[in-house]
């Protein structure tokens, strides 16, 4: 009986290995257009996972997550240009540091709020950064700022792939298989009870907030170098956070693989609409419809369907074991 849980994991492990091998070989299998689509899908899957760390596991809905994506992008753009001229890889730690500092400054007071108050506070922070970046000369103002071009699609694909894989590995280790993850879920389910158990909820929330923010900043840095030009709306815009939220809700809030499912699905739909109609206005309607459908029919997201099926299967196994024990 003890070996059964391990046996039941093999199909999932084999599927994961097959997906990773397919992703690793992707540049050899598709042309540059579809490689760019795959790169974007990996970015959105990773961003959705970073948002899910706080919004899903901790239960704090952050409507300003694009602020940290944009900070990573702007720090990279600023440091790669004159007078610094730093190489791309050297700008990533700097972006993580700047984003981490901002996350602590913003998170310490706002995480005392709950529900809509916290969501509005984080949204306001992102809006403030849009206005600041639009007004400052060193950011390029509303006109934006360019980066040194590097025309190597494979480099950016593997950069996004590696960062997304590391993001999910961190989420798996910290939020699914550690005492820290249990603390985060405890404060999500009942924060006063978690405090009564001796959990320092203020510290756990801030740690989760900073980790979520720093992760998003790395994707912002890669994105800026990839597209070679950014402006305030393209990296701080509220629609960026909106898409992350819908992706997580569609895939499964507070689950490990839900953000990947929702992120890849919605981004591919976005690109297919652009290919056939050349306009993403229809995509906004799809986002709205997706929210309605998820709320009405899939409150636990797509990943919830598999979780429910697994739970039903376990219940049937338990019933058979109990029935068999009774007969003996």
Structure report:
This protein has helices at residues 4-29, 32-58, 66-80, 88-110, 115-135, 153-176, 179-189, 191-196, 201-227, 232-236, 238-251, 258-277, 281-297, 301-327; strands at 145-146, 229-230. By secondary structure, the protein is mostly helical. It has a single domain, classed as ABC transporter involved in vitamin B12 uptake, BtuC (Orthogonal Bundle), CATH 1.10.3470. Strands 1-2 form a two-stranded antiparallel ribbon. Helix 2 (32-58) packs across helix 11 and helix 6 packs antiparallel against helix 9. The longest helix is centred in the N-terminal third of the chain and has 27 residues, at 32-58. The chain is globular. The two termini are 17 Å apart. Residues 310-315 have low confidence and may be disordered.
What's the structural blueprint in terms of helices and strands?
Elements (H helix, E strand, L loop, with lengths): L3 H26 L2 H27 L7 H15 L7 H23 L4 H21 L9 E2 L6 H24 L2 H11 L1 H6 L4 H27 L1 E2 L1 H5 L1 H14 L6 H20 L3 H17 L3 H27 L1
Antiparallel strand pairs: 1-2
Helix pairs in contact: 2-6, 2-9, 2-11, 2-12, 3-4, 3-9, 4-9, 6-7, 6-9, 7-9, 11-12, 11-13, 11-14
């Amino acid at each position: 009986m003890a070996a059964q849980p391990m046996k039941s994991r093999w199909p999932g492990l084999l599927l994961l290995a097959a997906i990773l091998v397919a992703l690793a070989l992707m540049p050899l299998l598709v042309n540059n257009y579809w490689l760019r689509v795959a790169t974007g899908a990996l970015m959105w899957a990773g961003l959705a996972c970073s948002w899910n760390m706080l919004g899903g596991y901790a239960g704090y809905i952050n409507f300003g997550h694009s602020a940290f994506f944009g900070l990573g992008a702007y720090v990279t753009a600023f440091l790669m240009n004159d007078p610094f001229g730093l190489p791309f890889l050297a700008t990533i730690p700097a972006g993580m540091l700047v984003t981490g500092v901002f996350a602590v400054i913003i998170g310490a007071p706002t995480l005392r709020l709950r529900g809509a108050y916290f969501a509005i506070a984080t949204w306001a922070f992102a809006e403030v950064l849009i206005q600041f970046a639009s007004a400052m000369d060193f950011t390029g103002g509303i006109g934006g700022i360019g980066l040194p071009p590097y025309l190597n699609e494979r480099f950016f694909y593997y950069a996004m792939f590696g960062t997304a894989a590391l993001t999910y590995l961190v989420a798996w280790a910290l939020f699914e298989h550690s005492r820290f993850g249990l603390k985060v879920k405890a404060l999500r389910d009942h924060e006063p009870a978690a405090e009564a158990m001796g959990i320092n909820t203020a510290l756990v929330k801030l740690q989760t907030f900073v980790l979520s923010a720093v992760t998003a900043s790395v994707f912002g840095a890669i994105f800026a170098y990839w597209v070679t030009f950014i402006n305030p709306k393209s990296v701080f815009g509220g629609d960026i956070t909106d898409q992350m939220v819908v992706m997580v809700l569609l895939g499964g809030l507070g689950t490990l693989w839900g953000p990947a499912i929702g992120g890849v699905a919605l981004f591919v739909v976005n690109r297919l609409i652009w290919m056939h109609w050349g306009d993403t206005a229809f995509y906004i309607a799809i986002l709205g419809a997706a929210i309605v459908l998820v709320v009405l029919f899939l409150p636990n997201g797509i990943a919830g369907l598999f979780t429910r099926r697994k739970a039903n299967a376990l219940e049937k196994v338990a019933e058979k074991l109990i029935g068999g024990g009774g007969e003996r």
